[in-house]
């Protein structure tokens, strides 16, 4: 039973959840803690974070180019490096939450850091000395100096640090409010996951419409000030539910367990495995044991019992975890290793995604964006990206899942199938982007380029197909990756596997920066021309998009091989479990 009968000091009794405590450290009262009230506060925190982060990221490239006077390629790399660092720092946030701070303290601390960062960014856009003087008609523009860029980088990477720490814990803290072993609360948890992704997208939609409009038409400092207020509200929300939350105690980081297996295996690399696997060390409880597998046998050496592996503590002796690991520990690491091929082949999707908030926004800034008397901000075109996500999720939940269940008997596509769809759609999105850019460039050439800052005589809505295709792809690949990394990882490493998933986003952004730098160097000239010219009207952005489409085709071919191996391995594992 998960519920226990507890006697309070004031002689009142209540049902409590055994693996959760309240803010005083007592077993959490089921009636007074957890459930939808604190979960709703956590959803509010995520809306505030998404509003702030996306409100800054999606339109940052236009600020870097238009106000700081950076070349388009440099601006794109600043944005992708910023976002890549944000997701990479999720690993740090997860490590601190699991090992030292717990999720609640991690959220409060890193939300405060992000608030400081957004406030610094608002200040840097307000003070004239922190940006170069304006230029007219792109003639004799003075690029931002080292001090000005230093303040901007300080603000951005404070935001990145805050975002990484916050994002690593907020979804997990939300699920902590529900008891998986209670059927009613387990159903509520499933709804929480759906609503969590919905509210992420909803916060992003408000950011790319309302906040981007304020940035372009009213002022950057006001928009970034709203982001600061948003994060301050997030802090108030998290603190307001202190007495209602359920808290899970930190149990140590799985990174340490992984390192222990690797270190022990390296130390015993010259030893031979025993003929009988039963001779390998195993003392895990029956309920948590994992069957031995024959893959990655080099790691099995960590479980070989050798002289000096045990440490005497008083009258008892226990194994030194850096010298001797259990078979279960080894198998957990093997399970994580088996995730890596899929992990590697999904990174390129996020490289394509990065173009939607960098070069696609730059494209939009050169095109006709007026509808009646209203001028659409270039960054607001990403609203079609978010709408594609919401529309795809709605169609998938309401139409595809019921039909697929009747036809195949399963509730929708598998995780591998969803990731495959995401990769296909992103590749098609890059191909469509290349064709659309060819059309835009032909128009730019026919009118002699955009030298006076006037928009080209072509509607910005021509860019919609690339946003819709990549947006629909994200809806499939994000949910597919999350499902894959959580369900196929060991129970003790769920947080670690979520962090591994988020590193695909980080590396996708970093690879985008790398590709931009390489293409700029290989195809560029001394006067700023080439595929990624400083003025995209004189470049060949279509070739860059085409390169990403070709890489997408190659990557998808590799993914099919890896997915087939993974599926075959799943069947083998099921046979072992049956035996």
UniProtKB/TrEMBL annotation:
Regions that span the bilayer = 82-101, 147-166, 196-215, 221-239, 342-362, 382-404, 416-436, 456-478, 499-519, 544-565
The GO cellular component terms are: membrane
Keywords in alphabetical order: Membrane, Transmembrane, Transmembrane helix
GO biological process: any one? oligopeptide transport
Specify where it is mainly localized. Answer: membrane
The yes or no answer to whether the keyword Transmembrane helix is present is yes
- What topology does the record note for this protein and the membrane? Multi-pass membrane protein
Pfam families on file: PTR2
Q: Which domain of life is it from?
A: Eukaryota
User: Where in the cell does this protein reside?
Assistant: Membrane
Q: Name one GO molecular function term.
A: transmembrane transporter activity
UniProt keyword Kinase present: no
Tell me which family the UniProt entry assigns to this protein: Belongs to the major facilitator superfamily. Phosphate:H(+) symporter (TC 2.A.1.9) family. Belongs to the major facilitator superfamily. Proton-dependent oligopeptide transporter (POT/PTR) (TC 2.A.17) family.
Protein's UniProt name: Major facilitator superfamily (MFS) profile domain-containing protein
Organism of origin: Mikania micrantha
Q: What is the phylogenetic placement of the source species in the record?
A: Eukaryota, Viridiplantae, Streptophyta, Embryophyta, Tracheophyta
């Amino acid at each position: 039973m998960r519920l226990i009968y507890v006697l309070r000091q004031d002689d009142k009794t209540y049902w409590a959840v055994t693996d959760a405590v309240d803010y005083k450290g007592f077993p959490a009262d089921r009636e007074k803690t957890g459930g939808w009230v604190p979960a709703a506060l956590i959803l509010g925190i995520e809306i505030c974070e998404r509003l702030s982060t996306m409100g800054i990221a999606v339109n940052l490239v236009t600020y870097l180019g238009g106000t700081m006077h950076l070349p388009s390629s440099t601006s794109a790399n600043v944005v992708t490096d910023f976002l890549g660092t944000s997701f990479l720092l999720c690993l740090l946030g997860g490590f601190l939450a699991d090992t030292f701070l717990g999720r609640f303290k991690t959220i409060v601390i890193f939300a405060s850091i992000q608030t400081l960062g957004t406030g610094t960014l608002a200040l840097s856009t307000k003070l004239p000395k922190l940006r170069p003087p304006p230029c007219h008609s792109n003639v004799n523009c003075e690029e931002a100096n080292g001090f000005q860029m230093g303040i901007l980088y300080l603000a951005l990477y404070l935001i990145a640090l805050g975002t990484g720490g916050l994002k690593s814990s907020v979804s997990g803290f939300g699920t902590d409010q529900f008891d998986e072993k209670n059927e009613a609360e387990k159903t509520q948890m499933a709804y929480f996951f759906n609503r969590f992704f919905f509210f992420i997208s909803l916060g992003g939609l408000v950011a790319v419409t309302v906040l981007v409009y304020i940035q372009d038409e009213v002022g950057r400092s006001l928009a970034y000030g709203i982001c600061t207020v948003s994060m301050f509200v997030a802090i108030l929300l998290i603190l307001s539910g202190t007495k209602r939350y359920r808290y899970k105690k930190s149990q140590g980081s799985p990174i340490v367990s992984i390192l222990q297996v690797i270190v022990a295996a390296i130390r015993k690399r010259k030893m031979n495995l025993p003929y009988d696997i039963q001779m390998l060390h195993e003392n895990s409880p029956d309920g948590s044991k994992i069957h031995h597998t024959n893959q990655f046998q080099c790691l099995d050496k960590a479980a070989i019992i050798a002289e000096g592996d045990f440490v005497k503590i008083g009258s008892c002796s226990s194994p030194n975890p850096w010298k001797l690991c259990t078979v279960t520990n080894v198998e957990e690491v093997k399970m994580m290793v088996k995730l890596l091929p899929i992990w590697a082949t999904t990174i390129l999707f996020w490289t394509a995604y990065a173009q939607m908030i960098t070069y696609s926004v730059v494209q939009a800034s050169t095109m006709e964006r007026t509808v009646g008397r209203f001028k659409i901000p270039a960054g607001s075109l990403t609203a079609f990206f978010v709408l594609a996500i919401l529309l795809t999720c709605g169609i998938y939940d309401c139409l595809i899942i019921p039909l697929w269940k009747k036809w195949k008997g399963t509730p929708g596509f598998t995780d591998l199938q969803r990731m495959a769809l995401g990769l296909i759609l992103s590749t098609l999105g890059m191909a469509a982007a290349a064709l659309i850019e060819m059309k835009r460039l032909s128009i730019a050439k026919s009118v002699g380029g955009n030298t006076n800052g006037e928009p080209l005589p072509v509607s910005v809505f021509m860019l919609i197909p690339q946003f819709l295709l990549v947006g629909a792809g994200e809806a499939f690949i994000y949910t597919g990756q999350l499902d894959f990394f959580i369900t196929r990882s060991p129970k003790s490493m769920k947080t670690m596997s979520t962090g591994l998933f988020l590193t695909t986003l980080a590396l996708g952004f970093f690879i985008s920066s790398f590709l931009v730098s390489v293409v700029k160097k290989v195809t560029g000239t001394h006067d700023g021309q080439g595929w990624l010219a400083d003025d995209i009207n004189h470049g060949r952005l279509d070739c860059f998009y085409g390169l990403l489409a070709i890489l997408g085709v190659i990557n998808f071919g590799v993914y099919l091989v890896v997915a087939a191996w993974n599926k075959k391995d799943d069947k083998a594992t099921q046979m072992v479990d049956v035996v």
